[in-house]
């Protein structure tokens, strides 16, 4: 893979690289600024950090922000061909591997929270208390660490000690020393997403039944919850497609290097950045309580700067 990256580096002009990098920096900066504003708003009101769905929303914001920041750094390093020692790449990759899974797992838990709120309202306070949510966050990170442990375990079992001191471009392909390791990684991740899809479909069907049977305010709340589940499902679909992009890129690079560069760039924008910018839309702008708090904070901050 390092050889392929060096070929890519030679094939692309500096102007083309700069144009792509600048566009990504603009998008990442916008998303990070929005996420930062939402995170500050979350901590300004007690009702947010004592309510399950808002706590989980904050987890996705923090996870997405960290993932965007780390993946952006790796993107820049790879575009400009900056190599690092393998052991440093391992440390960085642990964060990237784990938080690449944290967001979709959290989205699944948020879907279950909506299912409990709408289909089991009498038990919602008990099952989705602040204490239970904190325990849930620990479980989310534990589950999200399993694919990382699998990938690194297969790498540690196959890599020689001398490899850790070598300089390589840091990418996930660096850990795939054999074809079977790539298959194991893909199998574990797709198993995770299969379970997530099943949970979301289950919640969708149950909430839809409640929405059809409800009336008045309950009906409005149920259909709003149903739309939230659909948006979570769309986010997960984009995350799932991201798992298939390495297979597409591997097939493309064998035929056309320039096409490979454009495909990898497009994949990063569509399936890495896009799913992580939908969370602010789903809970930050669609939720009336959070939107009003965000609006008040933004207006107050603007007024304060002009006083």
What do these coordinates show?
With 307 residues, the protein is mostly helical. It has one domain (18-287): Rhodopsin 7-helix transmembrane proteins (Rhopdopsin 7-helix transmembrane proteins, Up-down Bundle). Helix content is 85%, strand content 1%. It has ten helices and two strands. Strands 1-2 form a two-stranded antiparallel ribbon. Helix 8 runs antiparallel to helix 9 (257-285). The chain is globular, with a radius of gyration of 21 Å. Mean pLDDT is 80; it is low at 1-13.
Total count of domains: 1
Put simply, the count of helices is: 10
How confident overall, as mean pLDDT? 80
Radius of gyration: 21 Å
Structural class: mainly alpha
Order of helices and strands: HHHEHHHEHHHH
Strand-residue proportion: under 5%
User: What is the H level of CATH, i.e. the homologous superfamily?
Assistant: Rhodopsin 7-helix transmembrane proteins
**Relative helix content:** over 70%
Number of strands: 2
CATH class: Mainly Alpha
Pfam families: 7tm_1 (PF00001)
Subcellular location: Membrane
Keywords: Membrane, Receptor, Transmembrane, Transmembrane helix
Organism: Collichthys lucidus
């Amino acid at each position: 893979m390092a050889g392929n990256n060096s070929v890519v580096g030679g094939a692309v002009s500096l102007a083309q690289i700069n144009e792509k990098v600048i566009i990504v920096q603009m998008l990442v900066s916008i998303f990070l600024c929005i996420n930062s504003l939402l995170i500050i708003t979350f901590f300004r009101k007690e009702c947010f950090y004592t309510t399950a769905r808002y706590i989980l929303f904050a987890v996705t914001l923090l996870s997405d922000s960290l993932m965007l920041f780390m993946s952006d750094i790796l993107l820049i390093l790879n575009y400009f061909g900056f190599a690092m020692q393998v052991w440093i790449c391992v440390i960085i990759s642990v964060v990237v591997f784990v938080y690449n899974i944290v967001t979709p797992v959290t989205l699944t838990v948020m879907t279950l929270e909506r299912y409990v709120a709408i289909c089991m309202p009498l038990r919602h306070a008990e099952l989705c208390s602040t204490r239970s949510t904190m325990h849930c966050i620990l479980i989310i990170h534990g589950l999200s660490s399993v694919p990382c442990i699998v990938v690194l375990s297969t790498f540690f079992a196959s890599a020689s000690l001398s490899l850790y001191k070598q300089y390589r471009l840091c990418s996930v392909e660096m850990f795939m020393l054999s074809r079977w390791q790539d298959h194991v990684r893909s199998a574990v991740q797709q198993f995770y997403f299969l379970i997530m899809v099943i949970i979301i479909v289950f919640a969708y069907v149950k909430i839809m039944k409640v929405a059809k049977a409800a009336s008045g305010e309950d009906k409005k709340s149920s259909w709003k919850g149903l739309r939230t589940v659909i948006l979570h499902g769309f986010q997960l679909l984009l995350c799932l497609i991201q798992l298939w992009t390495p297979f597409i890129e591997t097939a493309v690079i064998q035929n056309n290097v320039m096409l490979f560069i454009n495909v990898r760039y497009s994949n990063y924008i569509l399936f890495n950045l896009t799913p992580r910018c939908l969370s602010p839309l789903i809970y930050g702008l669609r939720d009336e309580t959070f939107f009003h708090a965000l609006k008040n904070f933004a207006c107050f901050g603007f007024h304060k700067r002009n006083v």
